[in-house]
Amino acid sequence: MKFGTLYSYWGNTWSCDYLETAKRVRKLGFDILEIGAGHLLEMEDEEILALRNLARDLGLTITCNIGPPKDKDVASSDASVRRAGIKFLTDIMNAMNRLDSKIIVGVQYTYWPNDFSDLDKPAIWKRGVESMKKLAVAAVENDVRICLEVVNRFETHILNTAAEANQFCDEVGSDNVGVLLDTFHMNIEEDNIAEAIRTSGSRLWHLHVGEGNRKVPGEGSLPWAEIGKSLRDIRFDGGVVMEPFYYDGGQVGKDIKVWRDISEGASPEEMDTRIADSLTFLRKNFLTED
Pseudo-torsion of CA 58, 239, 280, 266, nearest 10°? Predict the structure, then answer.
């Protein structure tokens, strides 16, 4: 397993200085920096090259995270929107090739966050599968693995459980399309988090981790030892990426529904200590045999 964090841990906007953040997360002991996939389409080739070279120098893996906007919904009833979504995600994977990034994760089978204006799940599901088959071709061409994120009922109504994700992947039928589970979302939707991980089995290529309160692992009540055992049971060797959210305000606070400062006024240095301590905690629970 490799361990990482999402880039936005230190703020409430979907942006950061990636070069400085890469140095910071490596210094804290992480193996992975997860960036905003859409940002690649806003970056010049020189910027992508600089991040690629720095990551190589640091021994840091870059993964990409995307929640496509509604006008890029690959499961839309509007064919032109579906085409725009397929082009959007294909362009991102082309840019990932230049970055030497091999994993893209997120709610790529529809849009995020969902406004639930269309509740015809079977039709949305079918269109999503057909679009994902086309995206799988681009994934193969770019040597990228697409990890479809399972999220809770308040953010989408399409993939809410590990079992649904397995079925969706079966229908897509590509070796380059798998599953991302997230402990925060599983805590809402699954009867048992560890069993959900076992349900995904070899389809689980990436894991997001965070407490039910959206803090870093170890600052809540989730059963981390059990989760670690389930990962060892399925011989999981993918990325384990923290996705904590502490700050209200900004677009992050709005999208994630953070309505108070969960950090309780912690300084940047204190936030560094918290996430580093959580990394130690995770490694102990995930890598230590019973």
Answer: 80
The active-site residue, picked from 34, 155, 190, 243, is 243
The rounded distance, in Å, linking the Cα atoms of 151 and 154 is: 8
Q: Which residues touch 203 (CB under 8 Å, ≥6 apart)?
A: 165, 166, 169, 178, 179
Phi-psi region of 265 (alpha: psi -120 to 50; beta: other; left: phi over 0): left
Instruction: Report yes or no: 75 and 128 within 8 Å, Cβ to Cβ.
Output: yes
Catalytic residue among 34, 149, 155, 189: 149
- Residue 4: Cβ within 10 Å count: 24
Contact 115, 70 (CB under 8 A): yes
Determine phi and psi for 147, rounding to 5 degrees.
Answer: -110, 110
Q: Is 130 a catalytic residue?
A: no
Q: Is 269 part of the annotated catalytic residue set?
A: no
What's the predicted TM-score (pTM) here?
A: 0.97
Domain count, the chain: 1
Question: How many whole angstroms separate alpha carbon 97 and alpha carbon 120?
Answer: 35
The domain that holds 7 is classified in CATH as 3.20.20.150
Phi, psi (degrees; rounded to nearest 5) at 205: -110, -15
pLDDT tens digits for 10-68?
999 999 999 999 999 999 999 999 999 999 999 999 999 999 999 999 999 999 999 99
Domain with 29, as residue range(s), is 2-287
